[in-house]
Amino acid sequence: MENTFNCLIDSFIDQQVGIADHFLSESLAADLKKNLISLYSNKMLLSAGTGNDKIIRHNSEVRGDRIYWLDRDHDTPCENAFFILMDNFVKHLNETCYTGITGYEFHYTLYEKGSFYKKHLDQFKNNDSRKYSMIIYLNSDWVFADGGELCIHHDDHLQNISPQNRKGVFFKSNEIMHEVLLTHQPRMSITGWLKI
Predict the structure, then answer these.
(1) Is the pTM of this model over 0.85?
(2) Most exposed: 6, 50, 72, 152, by fewest CB within 10 Å?
C-alpha cells in the first residue's frame, strides 16, 4: 500500500489535490459497496445537512446526498478493514509529512439520481479540526454520461474528477472549494476528514 499512499501524497503536493486510482482493493470496495446498498435498502441513510451539531441546516437546493456514519462499534468486517487501511495511511502521512493527524471521521455517502452538492468548503466556521478531506468512490462501471463529477475550484481553472470505483481523492479541507455535479445514476462513496 505504500506506493498507493505515496501516489496520493505526491499528486497532492504537485497539484493541491491528491488522486490514487486504486486506493481500495477490489474486494474491499465490493464489500463496502454491498454494505452501503444494504444500509440504503433498509432506510438507514439519513438526509445530509450543512453545518455541524451546533448549527445544522437541511436544504435540498444546496445538498442532496444521504449519509451513514462509519463506526468501530458497528464491528462490521468491511468497515473494520477500512479503518485499518486508514490507520496505516495516517501513520504513513504523519511519518512522511509531519501532519500531526490524530483522528478521523468517515461516512457512507449516496447521491440518488438527480442530486448534487453546491460549491463549498469542508471546514466549519466554528471548528477548524478538519485538516484534510478524503473521498473514496464505490461506483462500478461508471462512465462520463453518468455525471456526478467532483468539481474542484482552483484559482485559475476547474478540475473535474470522475467518481470511479476504488479511486481516492485527498485535499486540504480549509482551502479547496469544490462541488458535486448533478449525477444521473446513484453515486456512492466513503467521505471523511483527517483531524487534529
Answers:
(1) yes
(2) 72
Provide the 3-class DSSP secondary structure of residue 99. Answer: coil
Along the 196 residues of the chain, how does pLDDT read in single tens digits?
A: 899 999 999 999 999 999 999 999 999 999 999 999 999 999 999 998 655 555 555 566 788 899 999 999 999 999 999 999 999 999 999 999 999 999 999 999 999 999 999 999 987 655 678 999 999 999 999 999 999 999 999 999 999 999 999 999 999 999 999 999 999 999 999 999 999 9
Q: How far apart are alpha carbons 63 and 157 in whole angstroms?
A: 23
* Cα 47-107-149 angle, rounded to 5 deg: 80
